[in-house]
Specification:
single chain; 364 residues; DNA polymerase, domain 1; hpI Integrase, Chain A; 3-stranded antiparallel sheet; two-stranded antiparallel ribbon; 5 strands; 57% helix
């Protein structure tokens, strides 16, 4: 993944800079070999940091991808904007806060505050890692001020809309028995998928990565792999268990078709949710399914994460405490869970305005 992230086509100016570095660092003289420098050029340092994030810190895949693109952008900016004050052959050790501010200033013209904040986080992480390794003596990223990010309240569905959504998958009328059986299996799969997203508040990546051996329908629990490769147990409600049993009863139809199509041993055979070729349903495919069924709930732009927000908000309105919701959702910080109190309060205020007689009476 790291090689793929950093495998960007460098511009001509970048290529010339790399060639200069290479000629300076790896020149071989007669009867003499230059000692390798203490620091590495910035791109190799970035690659090392991303490898650390992926394999040691066990950061989420998307975090590694986003940080990789952000830091590759920093490297490209430095290559395209050489400075007489900076020896790029020293890698990150030559970067000062002015260079970082110049990069962020160029980004601010076309990026929002959320993206800028993430890029600052990426470069801070890089320099912290380099300092621990002794490759830099100072940390210019620590002098950067993060922009204030406006946190919007999450969008949630009403109980009625959420119910309509999870009940939306139904078999479509087909002419042949085989087509009718496939339509029935697809409807059962999608119903179970939506029940998990809304009923248990799973992330879309957690649903996609769910395997058969991680689900215990008799006990009503599932073991999911969350952010940072952290495992947690989540409860499955009775409607979800019923939907899962209905889907798993017909799942062999898709797995069997897939094995015949790929010659046996399909890669999705251990996955709970598979497509018609027997392979695991990916994140993008699940997002498109939720988007399509969202129209039944009056939200054609519905995203799977909105069902996670809806689950948390409905639990809070039903009397669940924040700590329990935090554990269910797998939030590292209670602060993340607390934003649902604002959503719940908005709902209470709206219900009050609609139902209380004093709220309806004109002000005097």
């Amino acid at each position: 993944m790291v090689t793929k992230v950093l495998g960007l086509r460098a511009r001509k100016s970048a290529s010339s800079s790399v060639e200069k570095w290479a000629s300076r660092e790896f020149s071989v003289h007669e009867n003499e070999v230059d000692e390798p420098p203490r620091t590495q050029p910035i791109r190799r340092q970035i690659e090392g940091y991303l490898t650390y994030l992926e394999h040691e810190a066990r950061a989420a895949r998307r975090t590694v991808e986003h940080y990789g693109r952000d830091l590759a952008g920093l490297a490209a900016h430095l290559e395209d904007n050489p400075s007489p004050r900076r020896d790029d052959g020293q890698g990150a050790a030559a970067i000062d806060v002015l260079a970082l501010r110049g990069w962020l200033g160029a980004q601010a013209r076309r990026c929002g505050t959320t993206t800028i904040a993430r890029r600052i986080s990426a470069v801070r992480g890089l320099f912290r890692w380099l300092r621990k390794r002794g490759e830099v003596a100072r940390d210019p990223a620590a002098e950067l001020a993060s922009p204030k990010v406006r946190r919007l309240l999450p969008h949630v569905l009403s109980v009625e809309s959420a119910t309509s959504l999870v009940e939306a998958p139904v078999p479509l009328p087909k002419k042949t028995p085989k087509a009718r059986a496939e339509s029935e299996a697809t409807a059962r799969r999608d119903r179970a998928l939506l029940e998990l997203l809304y009923g248990s508040g799973l992330r879309v990546g957690e649903v996609s990565g769910l395997d058969l051996d991680a689900v215990d329908l008799d006990s009503g629990v599932a073991r999911v792999m969350g952010k940072g490769s952290k495992e947690r147990m989540v409860p499955l409600g009775p409607p979800c268990i019923a939907a899962m049993r209905a889907w798993l009863a017909v799942r062999p139809r898709f797995v069997g078709e897939g094995e015949r199509a790929v010659g046996g041993g399909g890669s999705g055979t251990k996955s709970v949710f598979v497509g018609r070729r027997g392979t695991r349903l990916g994140v993008r495919r699940i997002e498109s399914l939720v988007h399509a069924y969202g129209a039944f709930a009056g939200r054609s732009d519905l995203h799977p994460h909105a069902l996670r927000h809806t689950c948390a908000t409905h639990l809070l309105e039903g009397g669940a405490d924040l700590r329990s919701i935090q554990e269910l959702l797998g939030h590292a910080s209670l602060t993340t869970t607390q934003r649902y109190t604002h959503v719940s309060m908005e709902h209470v205020t709206k219900q009050y305005d609609q139902a209380h007689p004093l709220a309806k009476s004109p002000a005097k």
